[in-house]
Amino acid sequence: MATPDSEQRDRHARDIPSAWINEPAAWFGAAIIGMIVVFIGLAIDAWRHNNGAGEESLLSFSNPGHLVAGIGLIGTSAALLVGLSVSTLKGAETAQATIRRFVPVTAAWVAVAAVGVGSITYIAASGVTVGHGEHADDTAAVAADHPHTDGGDAGVAQAVKDAGVDLNDPGNVPGALNQGASGQADGHHDKGKHPTFTQLQTMTDDQLLPMFPGETVAAADLPSLRNEVAQVREIAKLYPTVASANAAGFFNTTSDVPFMGQHFINREYLLDGKFDPSKPEGLLYSKVDGGPEKLVGVWFLQIPGIGDTTIEAEPVGFAGNLDLWHAHIGLCLVGTAGASEGETQEGCEAKGGDFTADLRWMMHVWVAPETTENQDGFFAYLNNDLYEKQVAAKTTAEAPSGTLP
Predict the structure, then answer these.
(1) How far does the chain reach from its first CA to its final CA, in angstroms?
(2) FRET partner for 150 with CA separation of 20 to 30 A, picked from 52, 133, 333, 347?
(3) Which of 7-16, 82-91, 197-206, 285-294 is predicted least confidently?
(4) Cα(256)–Cα(252) distance, integer angstroms
(5) 296: β partners
(6) Where is pLDDT greater, at 163 or 367?
(7) Are 41 and 65 in contact, with CB atoms under 8 Å apart?
């Protein structure tokens, strides 16, 4: 038979689980735990970027650091709001007092929710990224395609400008952009002027065939070529922004190279060693207006020794014989001061450069006419239309406030 003391102890024990819910201190303690979780997430994120992680969206939860920090931030915000609610409403003895205290509590909840949703929406829309482009050893050769810089006026474009080179003529751009060895006997990086992406998709076979360089595309090749380029176009439509590329596993490896843009790469597609129009190894982004970077093209990279790719012959790629895969042979990158090809290791090191003996095989595909249409063709190496927009965007960004470029 239960005694009064035992009944009281039982009631007290049953009350304990719910007692802390009504204590503001308990919720503020939970907020402190949430902040600790946030800091742990930030530490994980810092460790990842210090050990090879590339640029990525703040909303990319494939990064465990972002996920942990996000959970901690949500937990902290919720605990603080509940703690505020409990402390404000506690002790209200009348309905009128409760209503008076409920107003500021509701305002706090609404304000936090509005700011949170607004911030997340802005981050997603702006495509802002965090991190850097220094990558692990397994992608060092990829990053060597062009010198990587952390922004500002550094990189290939500024280096050649500082040297007094007129960038308005792509033929005057020195080094790895369009000179030196290409891996081809004639030194070319593409087969010459041919139809644009829009022309390929809208013109008839009879109209198109005379527009291709000789012995590159036959009538029998056109249906397959159209289909393959259309597959590349569908991929381009999936990743219009840097944030969308980051979320899919692409990361940046270069500065905004003139005539080309930033070279983003997908490690998974690179290491599978397969050519697949629907799985390009890379994407190209650039600033073509006053906004953030937009997708301007796609690029493919096949490394000898991965899959069936060899150093002796360019990959079997698109239908026909129009896709000329190029290489960078004897590539010497001297910090942000320039790039050249056809160098020896000794000569490059004497200049303080970083030497890459042979980087191949790669090619560009320009399938984003809404941002840039390459008038030299959808497989052309350089994109003059893109370069003009790069210059215009930079000029606009540098113009003093209240003035026209």
Answers:
(1) 92
(2) 347
(3) 7-16
(4) 10
(5) none
(6) 367
(7) yes
Closest CA to 353 of 332, 369, 382, 339: 332
C-alpha span between 366 and 201 (Å, rounded): 13
351-381 in b/e burial notation, b at 16+ Cβ within 10 A? Answer: eebbbbeebbbbbbbbbbbebbbbebbbbbb
What's the CA gap between 72 and 59, in Å, rounded?
14
Largest CA distance in the chain: 104
CA distance 59 to 57: 5
Q: Find the helix or strand (DSSP H, E) in which 266 lies.
A: strand 262-266
Tokens 């000569």 -> residue: 347
pLDDT band at 169 (very low <50, low <70, confident <90, very high): very low
Name which of 382, 383, 124, 367 is nearest 236 in CA terms.
367
- Which residues, 6 or more positions from 196, have their beta carbon under 8 angstroms from its beta carbon? 366, 369, 373, 374, 375, 377, 378
162 near 314, Cβ under 8 Å?
A: no
Residues 101 and 92: beta-carbon distance below 8 Å: yes
**How far is 269 from 278, CA to CA, in rounded Å?**
10
| C-alpha dist (Å) from residue 58 to 65, 119, 121, 243 | 10, 11, 12, 8
Q: Of 367, 356, 380, 177, whose CA–CA distance to 283 is shortest?
A: 367
Task: Please give the DSSP secondary-structure letter assigned to residue 223.
Answer: H
Q: Are 339 and 331 in contact (CB under 8 A)?
A: yes
The structure tokens 């004497």 sit at: 350
Contact 264, 245 (CB under 8 A): yes
Beta-carbon count within 10 A of 41 CB? 21
- How many other CB atoms sit within 10 Å of the CB of residue 117? 10
pTM, entire model = 0.56
Strand partners for 294: 241, 286
Contacts of 51 (CB under 8 A, 6+ apart): 136
Distance from C-alpha of 340 to C-alpha of 334, rounded to nearest angstrom: 9
Instruction: Tell me the β-bridge partners of 86.
Output: none
Side chain identity, residue 238:
L
Question: Does residue 147 contact residue 156 with C-beta atoms inside 8 Å?
Answer: yes
Distance CA 388, CA 107 (A): 50
Q: Which residues contact 311 (CB under 8 A, 6 or more apart)?
A: 304, 358, 360
The DSSP 8-state label assigned to residue 200 in this structure reads H
